Amino acid sequence: MDHGMTGAGGATAEFILSLNAGSSSLKFSLYEAGDEPREIAVGQVESLGPNARFKARIGLEQVEDDLGSANHHVALRAILEKCETVLQGRPPACIGHRIAHGGVDYEAPQLLTPEVMEKLALLEPLAPLHQPHNLAAVRASIEAFPDALQIGCFDTAFHRNHPWVNDTFGLPLKYYDRGVRRYGFHGLSYDYITGTLARIDPELASGRVVIAHLGNGASMCGVLNGRSIASTMGFSALDGLPMGTRCGQLDPGVVLYLMDQEGLSASELTKLLYNESGLKGLSGATNDMRALEASQQLEAEMAIEYYTFRARRELGALAASLHGIDGVVFCGGIGENSAAIRARICNGMDWMGITLDARANTDNEMSIGIGRTKVLVIPTDEERIIARAASRALNERAMAKD
């Protein structure tokens, strides 16, 4: 296989590394920079800790390896070592990072300077499952590649300009001014889906669309003409839909009760709401939707029924926020792959013009609706959104040098 890569005019291509860091994994995509970045490797280091494992497609080859003990620093080194067949001694010129929370300050990709990193670290309590690990990957990247551009892309940015009524809570306004507001998440996914819609169906893209990003983390977003109007997630990534291990919408009185009557501390509540609830808590077994669908246990069916009921409820609420609906798009691991979950969510929604073509849905086709409201399945690609931002940053740097 020819790994030599050249850009326009025969110039050597620059590489972009896109990183998506979680508590137990480091996902990556490696791109050749360009107007539309070209993916040349994709994979992850999973099970960070004593038994980490590397899995990736590099060029045309599938690569797997046991790494032993690994943290984010070790995982990043392993990614670069495994990708040397395509890098050929040339380090990435820009590393783009998915960062869960950008707060009120950041609504566009940002160069990750020390000052910006300090501000982002202050947001860790708002996204404790994601933000600390996102920033750990940034620090590892800066240490490994001090000369590379480090770009942060924020999951909250897509929602930064939604209407005030969908941005606030019914609390004294002084708390809103202090940053207690609805931020929304999964913005990189929504950015990709709205961009894809604009390309494949401009008429629908200019209309009223509900996008359902359904995975271990799950949310839905009402979009009007490509702009976020309302999101199921709010101040934190706990709100809205039940998720793999997160509770979703919860009466705040429940939290007060658990503190006052059950004696749970803040750390115990955090563990309960983030790690022990959702599908895992309801089923008493697992957060894996595939395992729940295959299970014969009553609790598994109860968990699925609650999950799909809440999605139907939010679908109706988002349509009301949009003053109607023209289309629904499913994405994310569950949304893209589970025909049964899509069918259960859409069941009984004919009054909204949502009717599925059972065969198209079962076959995972892109267009699965036969009613007046279009229903689509579009695989999302958050890493490509990051790569595009990184490529723009490289172009801006090149122009500044000219």
TrEMBL record:
<feature type="binding site">
    <location>
        <position position="382"/>
    </location>
    <ligand>
        <name>Mg(2+)</name>
    </ligand>
</feature>
<keyword id="KW-0479">Metal-binding</keyword>
<feature type="active site" description="Proton donor/acceptor">
    <location>
        <position position="155"/>
    </location>
</feature>
<dbReference type="InterPro" id="IPR043129">
    <property type="entry name" value="ATPase_NBD"/>
</dbReference>
<comment type="pathway">
    <text>Metabolic intermediate biosynthesis; acetyl-CoA biosynthesis; acetyl-CoA from acetate: step 1/2.</text>
</comment>
<protein>
    <recommendedName>
        <fullName>Acetate kinase</fullName>
        <ecNumber>2.7.2.1</ecNumber>
    </recommendedName>
</protein>
<dbReference type="Pfam" id="PF00871">
    <property type="entry name" value="Acetate_kinase"/>
</dbReference>
<dbReference type="InterPro" id="IPR000890">
    <property type="entry name" value="Aliphatic_acid_kin_short-chain"/>
</dbReference>
<comment type="similarity">
    <text>Belongs to the acetokinase family.</text>
</comment>
<feature type="binding site">
    <location>
        <position position="27"/>
    </location>
    <ligand>
        <name>ATP</name>
    </ligand>
</feature>
<comment type="subunit">
    <text>Homodimer.</text>
</comment>
<feature type="binding site">
    <location>
        <begin position="213"/>
        <end position="217"/>
    </location>
    <ligand>
        <name>ATP</name>
    </ligand>
</feature>
<keyword id="KW-0460">Magnesium</keyword>
<keyword id="KW-0547">Nucleotide-binding</keyword>
<feature type="site" description="Transition state stabilizer">
    <location>
        <position position="186"/>
    </location>
</feature>
<comment type="function">
    <text>Catalyzes the formation of acetyl phosphate from acetate and ATP. Can also catalyze the reverse reaction.</text>
</comment>
<feature type="binding site">
    <location>
        <begin position="333"/>
        <end position="337"/>
    </location>
    <ligand>
        <name>ATP</name>
    </ligand>
</feature>
<dbReference type="InterPro" id="IPR004372">
    <property type="entry name" value="Ac/propionate_kinase"/>
</dbReference>
<keyword id="KW-0808">Transferase</keyword>
<feature type="binding site">
    <location>
        <begin position="288"/>
        <end position="290"/>
    </location>
    <ligand>
        <name>ATP</name>
    </ligand>
</feature>
<keyword id="KW-0418">Kinase</keyword>
<feature type="site" description="Transition state stabilizer">
    <location>
        <position position="246"/>
    </location>
</feature>
<feature type="binding site">
    <location>
        <position position="98"/>
    </location>
    <ligand>
        <name>substrate</name>
    </ligand>
</feature>
<feature type="binding site">
    <location>
        <position position="20"/>
    </location>
    <ligand>
        <name>Mg(2+)</name>
    </ligand>
</feature>
<dbReference type="InterPro" id="IPR023865">
    <property type="entry name" value="Aliphatic_acid_kinase_CS"/>
</dbReference>
<keyword id="KW-0067">ATP-binding</keyword>
<keyword id="KW-0963">Cytoplasm</keyword>
<dbReference type="GO" id="GO:0008776">
    <property type="term" value="F:acetate kinase activity"/>
</dbReference>
